[in-house]
């Protein structure tokens, strides 16, 4: 284990439940029937416990997008060719992708990190942290060595540390990597032991007929790699991806600094499963932004006992669904800080429940 990872894991503590009790009491003094703001109230409590502050400030947000390629793209498991990963990185830099639009809308700092794109990327606006140019094709070889997996996790930890130094108080973590729904389904199958058929989906939009091929590729990879279900790093390194490793690292780095993280879709949630296996307390810092259309997402969410805020039929990635959920977190903190109390507004209280 790298010293960065060891140091990070040692710093992660659970949420501050005492603050939660104070916030719960305060919420019931605000000018609304107790509990009437439902999950927004629960969110306010969670955010206060995460930050360790009765009136948490989660602005400004930061968005990290990790990009990497997958050797398994050669098996024809995506509707798009591998070059699209690098082309989309250029699009991120040129502000043209969905995540650029949503990040700008919420006033987020955005960083694009090349943790393993197959081609050489040049140009400004990209953080160059390539661990290797794409993973091995998991049907034929391990995705990466354990050492490379650790390096990719460290890339993620350092990226979230940069966001904190830049003043960000809430993190959105996204990815770009053609064929990464295949890698994520393989990781999920290895971790849960569930049937591959129930864990795959159409990703970028492969035809219904190609789904059986995608399942067969994953089954071959699972049989060939023999990853150990109780060893998250083994599963990650044999079947996963460099951006998935970096996302796990970003969650760990954020949790170590008490920064809330909004988890995006399927790939992001599989990365969250890895992070939580490495350190169960990380779960305390994760807020789930949306439910992806990718069928495996429901399974991954259930393993983490997570119920996402939004269900908008998204199946994009990039951190898009997490960025869309961010304004709800802001509403929760503003409600807590800015609403009048029954006493200050001179409103009669109701029955004590
Ligand atoms: C233009 C374009 C933009 C994207 N942005 C995110 N993804 C998403 O699609 C990919 C996963 O799907 P699969 O496993 O089927 O390849 C990932 O790159 C993911 O982030 C995109 C995909 C495309 C084509
Ligand atoms: O849910 C996701 O993250 C997702 C789904 C399909 C394609 N890319 C990403």
UniProtKB/TrEMBL annotation:
It holds the Pfam family DBI_PRT. One of its GO terms (biological process) is cobalamin biosynthetic process. The keyword Transferase applies. The active site is at 318 (proton acceptor). CDD domains: DMB-PRT_CobT. It catalyses: 5,6-dimethylbenzimidazole + nicotinate beta-D-ribonucleotide = alpha-ribazole 5'-phosphate + nicotinate + H(+). Its EC number is 2.4.2.21. GO terms for molecular function: nicotinate-nucleotide-dimethylbenzimidazole phosphoribosyltransferase activity. The keyword Transferase applies. InterPro entries: Nict_dMeBzImd_PRibTrfase, Nict_dMeBzImd_PRibTrfase_bact, Nict_dMeBzImd_PRibTrfase_N, Nict_dMeBzImd_PRibTrfase_sf. Keywords: Cobalamin biosynthesis, Glycosyltransferase, Transferase. Pathway: Nucleoside biosynthesis; alpha-ribazole biosynthesis; alpha-ribazole from 5,6-dimethylbenzimidazole: step 1/2. It comes from the Bacteria. Catalyzes the synthesis of alpha-ribazole-5'-phosphate from nicotinate mononucleotide (NAMN) and 5,6-dimethylbenzimidazole (DMB). Belongs to the CobT family. NCBIfam families: cobT_DBIPRT (TIGR03160), PRK00105.1 (NF000996). This is Nicotinate-nucleotide--dimethylbenzimidazole phosphoribosyltransferase. It comes from Modicisalibacter xianhensis. The gene is cobT.
């Amino acid at each position: 284990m790298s010293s960065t990872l060891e140091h990070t894991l040692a710093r992660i503590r659970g949420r501050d439940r005492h603050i939660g009790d104070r916030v719960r009491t305060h919420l019931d003094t605000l000018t609304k029937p107790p509990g009437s703001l439902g999950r927004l109230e629960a969110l306010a409590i969670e955010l206060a416990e995460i930050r360790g502050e009765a009136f948490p400030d989660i602005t400004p947000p930061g968005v990290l997008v990790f990009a990497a390629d997958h050797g398994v793209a050669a098996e024809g498991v995506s509707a798009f060719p591998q070059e699209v990963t690098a082309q989309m990185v250029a699009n991120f830099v040129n502000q043209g992708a969905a995540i650029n639009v949503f990040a700008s809308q919420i006033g987020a700092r955005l960083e694009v990190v090349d943790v393993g794109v197959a081609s050489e990327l040049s140009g400004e606006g990209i953080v160059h942290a390539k661990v290797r140019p794409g993973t091995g094709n998991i049907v034929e070889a391990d995705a990466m060595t354990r050492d490379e997996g650790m390096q990719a996790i460290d890339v993620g930890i350092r990226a979230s540390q940069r966001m904190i130094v830049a003043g960000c108080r809430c993190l959105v973590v996204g990815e770009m990597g053609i064929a990464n729904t295949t890698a994520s389904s393989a990781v999920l199958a290895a971790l849960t032991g569930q049937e591959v058929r129930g864990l795959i989906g159409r990703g970028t939009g492969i035809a219904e007929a190609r789904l059986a091929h995608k399942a067969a590729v994953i089954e071959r990879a699972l049989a060939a790699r023999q990853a150990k279900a109780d060893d998250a790093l083994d599963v990650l390194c044999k079947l996963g991806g460099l951006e998935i490793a970096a996302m796990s690292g970003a969650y760990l780095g954020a949790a170590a600094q008490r920064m809330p993280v909004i988890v995006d879709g399927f790939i992001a949630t599989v990365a969250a499963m890895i992070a939580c296996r490495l350190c169960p307390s990380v779960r305390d810092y994760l807020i789930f932004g949306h439910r992806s259309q990718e069928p495996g997402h429901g399974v991954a969410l259930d393993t983490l006992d997570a119920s996402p805020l939004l269900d908008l039929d998204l199946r994009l990635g990039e951190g898009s669904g997490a960025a869309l959920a961010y304004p709800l977190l802001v509403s929760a903190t503003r409600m807590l800080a800015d609403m009048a109390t029954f006493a200050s507004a001179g409103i009669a209280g109701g029955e004590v429940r």
